[in-house]
Design brief:
By secondary structure, this protein is α+β, with helices and mostly antiparallel strands. It has one domain. It is 13% helix and 24% strand. The strands form 2 sheets. The protein has a 3-stranded antiparallel beta sheet with strand order 3-4-5. It is a peripheral membrane protein. This is LITAF domain-containing protein.
Length: 89
């Protein structure tokens, strides 16, 4: 008897800091997600480090203005349902 090989395909969602193509679990439509940036743990950690280093005049607020420091929420553009939260930390 010859061994039988089987292949399993695993779909990996690429929910990072850019819009992703996915199927909404609520409206069951194939969509490209709408993203929204929110301050998360990394933002507040950098803020705290800058305060500790003496940047108290306003430089400590820079992480709150930089999207690459923030968490990303992915929403369905059709039904506005939250699909995924991408956390930097």
């Amino acid at each position: 008897m010859a061994p039988v090989a089987s292949t399993t395909v695993v779909m990996v969602n690429s929910f990072h800091d850019t819009p992703a193509s996915c199927m909404c679990p609520v409206c069951r439509q194939n969509v490209i997600s709408r993203i929204e940036y929110n301050s998360g743990l990394l933002t507040w950690l950098i803020f705290g480090i800058l305060i500790f280093l003496g940047c108290i005049i306003g430089c400590c607020l820079i992480p709150c203005c930089v999207n690459s420091c923030k968490d990303v929420n992915h929403y369905c553009p059709n039904c506005k349902h939250l699909i995924h939260k991408y956390k930097r930390l």
